[in-house]
Structure formats: C-alpha cells, structure tokens
C-alpha cells in the first residue's frame, strides 16, 4: 500500500488537520457502514476507511506512517501500545461498558469519551448516535467443508470462528440431511455485538461439499463410481455396493462399457419437503492387476476367438 493511500481513502490531503480527518471519516463511515449500506464491498470499504482513520487520527502513528509508509508497524510499537491501552481501559471500568472488536482488529467501546489511538478521545456516541442510534451487530461468516456422505446424513457439527482480536468462539450446529454445496445456514446471535439496544448479528455458515474418491455431488444428484469386472460388464450382473444412504444393489445391463451411467431414482440427496435427487452409478471396468494362470489362459482364448474391435466400433 503506497504511503499516501490512507489519505486517498479518506479523501483528504497529506496536510489535513485532525478536524478535517475526523469530518471526512464521519462522512464516509455513515455512507459505508454495513448496517446501512448493503452493497457488495461496502463492509470491506468500511474496514479500510476505519483503519485509515485510526492511523491518521493518532499523531504518533500518523508520523510513523508518513515516515515509513505501509510497513510502519514494523518500526514502531504503535499497534501493540494501542491494544495494551485499550485492554487497560476496559479493565479499568470504562463507565461499565463492554469493549468489542471492530474493523481491522481495533476495539470499539460504546463508552462516552472512550480511549482511541494514542490516547485520543473518541466519542462513538457522538460519531454514530445521531445517525444510527441503536445498531444491530455485524454478521460473521464461516465455511464448513463436508464429504458427500456427511452432507447426505446431516447431524451435529462444531464450528470454530476466530474473531479479529484472536478470540475463538465455538458453535454447535445441526446440519439438515441433504444439505447442498453452497447452501447457507444462519445461526442467530452468533455475529458481532450490537450497539445500545441493537441485537447481535448472526453467524452465516456456508456449506462446501467436496468430491470424494468415488462420490461427487451435482446439484441434488449424486454420482458415484461403480466398479465392476470385465465379465460383469459383458454378461450383465447385479452388483452390491455402498451408497451414502447405505448398501444398495445395482443391476448392470449386459454390454455395459466404462462411463455408462445407471440411474437410481430418488436415491440422491434427501430434500426436506421436496423431491429428493437421483443417484447415478457410473460404470468403471476394473481389470485384475495380477492374473492367475487359468485367468490368463481364458483371456488368451477370448482374444483368439473374439472378433470384437472396440476401436472399429467407435
């Protein structure tokens, strides 16, 4: 990040005084706060301008930023000192209010005259009170990876979410059977703390169903590899195998080649209150890796007697 990026983010000159910086931040914060602006990217923009303000509002960190640029924190203990001051302020009472993590790891407090960067007084009520009043907390997001079998069955899982200040929260959630890739679950109250009488945000969990060695998800349909022998493929057979819902028997028609898809209707992903998906068994012919003498003899005989040429047939 170039040395003047924070100034450009706030739309002020490098010679701007503290009042100009505060006015610019108030204007942008009201515009991009995620509880007001639901546009894509608004929350990231809000975090960027909040970090820019916290750095430029403190004379010490601003001087370090002007001198060293984006790597200024490597040369100064400004961030550690700020975190230490914030924790000390919270431990000292702060008017009985509770500190909470904000954008870019900064700690916000709803206390009047709370301590900001470098000891500067920041009145959050004055900054947001007239515009927002009571505000709901920001939603947090998490991703949970599942196998096809786990998504099919559903059940209890634990999600661990790390906050911007390094704190870890654990949530026990109930996954519905048949959850699909990309589906989302809302855990009420699992997000950021609200302001004043505003309730907490929610935790939004996005499910990702990863393909397995033999199973893949296609919407609500499941495709699984069905491993069969050359003679089962040529002569036809009833093949027993295991699907996500348990053991099944698949009837393989005679003359089935690798890649043929056999449909088992309604045995895909279950859907609460809706039509389940289908299961597609994809034929995959497996040749014995090691032949007995008798097997070799029979294959040699088949090669001599058969007129079938798969390359000519294609």
From TrEMBL:
<feature type="region of interest" description="Disordered">
    <location>
        <begin position="79"/>
        <end position="118"/>
    </location>
</feature>
<dbReference type="InterPro" id="IPR036869">
    <property type="entry name" value="J_dom_sf"/>
</dbReference>
<feature type="region of interest" description="Disordered">
    <location>
        <begin position="242"/>
        <end position="279"/>
    </location>
</feature>
<dbReference type="InterPro" id="IPR008971">
    <property type="entry name" value="HSP40/DnaJ_pept-bd"/>
</dbReference>
<dbReference type="Pfam" id="PF01556">
    <property type="entry name" value="DnaJ_C"/>
</dbReference>
<protein>
    <submittedName>
        <fullName>J domain-containing protein</fullName>
    </submittedName>
</protein>
<dbReference type="Pfam" id="PF00226">
    <property type="entry name" value="DnaJ"/>
</dbReference>
<feature type="domain" description="J">
    <location>
        <begin position="5"/>
        <end position="69"/>
    </location>
</feature>
<dbReference type="InterPro" id="IPR002939">
    <property type="entry name" value="DnaJ_C"/>
</dbReference>
<dbReference type="InterPro" id="IPR001623">
    <property type="entry name" value="DnaJ_domain"/>
</dbReference>
């Amino acid at each position: 990040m170039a040395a003047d990026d924070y100034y450009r983010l706030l739309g002020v000159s490098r010679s701007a005084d503290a009042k100009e910086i505060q006015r610019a931040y108030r204007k942008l914060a009201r515009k991009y706060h995620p509880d007001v602006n639901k546009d894509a990217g608004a929350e990231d923009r809000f975090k960027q301008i909040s970090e820019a303000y916290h750095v430029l509002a403190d004379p010490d960190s601003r001087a370090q930023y002007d001198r060293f640029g984006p790597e200024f924190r490597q040369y100064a203990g400004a961030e550690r000192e700020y975190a230490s001051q914030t924790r000390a302020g919270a431990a000292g009472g702060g008017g009985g209010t509770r500190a909470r993590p904000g954008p870019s790891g900064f700690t916000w407090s709803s206390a009047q005259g709370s301590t900001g960067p470098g000891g500067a007084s920041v009145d959050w009520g004055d900054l947001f009170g007239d515009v927002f009043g009571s505000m709901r907390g920001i939603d947090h997001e998490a991703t949970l990876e599942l196998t096809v079998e786990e998504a099919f069955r559903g059940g209890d899982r634990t999600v661990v979410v790390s906050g911007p200040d390094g704190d870890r929260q654990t949530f026990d959630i109930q996954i519905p059977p048949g959850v699909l890739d990309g589906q989302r679950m809302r855990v009420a109250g699992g997000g950021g703390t609200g302001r004043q009488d505003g309730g907490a945000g929610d935790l939004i969990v996005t499910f990702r169903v990863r393909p397995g060695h033999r199973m893949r998800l296609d919407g609500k349909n499941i495709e699984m590899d069905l491993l069969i022998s050359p003679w089962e493929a040529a002569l036809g057979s009833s093949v027993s195998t295991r699907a996500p819902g348990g053991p099944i028997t698949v009837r393989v028609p005679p003359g089935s080649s690798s890649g043929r898809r056999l449909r088992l209707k309604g045995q895909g992903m279950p859907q609460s209150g809706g039509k389940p998906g289908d299961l597609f068994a994809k034929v995959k012919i497996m040749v014995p890796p090691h032949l007995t003498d008798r097997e070799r003899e029979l294959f040699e005989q088949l090669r001599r007697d058969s007129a079938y040429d798969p390359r000519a047939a294609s």
